[in-house]
TrEMBL record:
Keyword Isomerase on entry: no
Any single GO CC term annotated in Swiss-Prot or TrEMBL for this entry: cytosol
Protein name: Ribosomal protein L11 methyltransferase
Recorded name of the encoding gene: prmA
Source species taxonomy: Bacteria, Pseudomonadati, Pseudomonadota, Gammaproteobacteria, Alteromonadales
UniProtKB keywords: Cytoplasm, Methyltransferase, Ribonucleoprotein, Ribosomal protein, S-adenosyl-L-methionine, Transferase
Xref: Pfam families: PrmA
Length: 291
């Protein structure tokens, strides 16, 4: 199906009004984006933070009468309308994404391979991945940092926790690298579905357990990877560290460069920390728990 979009200049005071007006006239999709590259990080649960200069994008079918949209907005907005209408190319967007997701190598022996592509090296440690609706393909620096750390560990016979498991990419990689048991924990039920599906795809479903936080059993693990965000890593440090045996290994990502020190400071009393590792603007904090 072909689509057409209207891009409207807004700010944090007018963006919600424009969104409501677009929805009132049957717009099937409304998106907010930053107009000036001013990032907003870690909103609180249920909180929506808008940028000082925001672009509101309304998406319509290509046959929609866009002049009627402009007229309605002009008549009902509290400020003058500044907009641009663009025709979007008719594409199979799912296929577009699939065509641009290629096998990626991490470290010396680990490959993350889209399940619909050929495996580059059959003798390597290969994880076949279809992320579905859950986060984690290996293309993001935070996932990459964790995969490279896992690839360098001795995981033979170990129990690993994948905290915030998403697609299951880290936990499945850990099993393929020698872990005996992996426990995936996530607040999103879709993540548990994606993790189970990917574990089945890789033939390791009997070694991967997935739980919502309220359902997880009691256990002690040798290793934990947590690719979430800096704020929950700080706030949940007692819970996260409580999963680990003495001298257990931990790696955390989802941490921006300017947040790394604050996360490291929270864990330093309990963990002998490695040097902070960075890829682009993202970092990894890792180490071994103390007695």
């Amino acid at each position: 199906m072909a689509w057409i979009q209207i891009r409207i200049d807004a700010n944090k005071e007018t963006a919600d009004q424009i969104s409501d007006l677009l929805m009132d006239i049957g717009c099937p999709s409304v998106t907010f984006i930053d107009s000036q590259n001013n990032p907003v990080y870690e909103p609180k649960p249920g909180e929506v933070i808008l940028w000082p200069e925001t672009t509101v994008i309304g998406l319509f079918e290509a046959t929609h009468d866009m002049q009627s949209v402009v007229t309605y907005l002009t008549e009902n907005m509290s400020e003058p309308l500044k907009y641009k209408i663009e025709q979007l190319e008719d594409k199979d967007w799912e296929r577009e994404w699939m065509d641009n997701f290629h096998p990626i190598k991490f470290g010396e022996r680990l490959w993350i391979c889209p399940s619909w592509r050929d495996i580059p090296d059959p003798d390597a440690v290969n994880v076949l991945l279809d992320p579905g609706l859950a986060f984690g393909t290996g293309t993001h620096a935070t996932t990459s940092l964790c995969l490279k750390w896992l690839e360098a560990q001795d995981l033979s016979g170990k129990t690993v926790v994948d905290f915030g498991c998403g697609s299951g990419i880290l936990g499945i990689a850990a099993i393929k690298l020698g872990a005996e048991r992996v426990i995936g924990i996530d607040i999103d039920p879709q993540a548990l579905v994606a993790s189970r599906d990917n574990a089945e795809r890789n033939g390791v479903a009997d070694q991967l357990e997935v739980y919502l936080p309220e359902n997880q059993p009691e256990f002690k693990a040798d290793i934990i990877v947590a690719n979430i965000l800096a704020q929950p890593l700080r706030e949940l440090h007692e819970i996260i560290l409580g999963f680990l045996k003495p001298h257990g290994a931990i790696a955390m990502s989802g941490i921006l460069e300017e947040q790394a020190e604050s996360v490291a400071n929270v864990y330093a009393p309990y963990v002998d920390l490695d040097a902070i590792k960075q890829e682009g603007e993202w970092t990894r904090v890792s180490g071994i728990t103390k007695e």
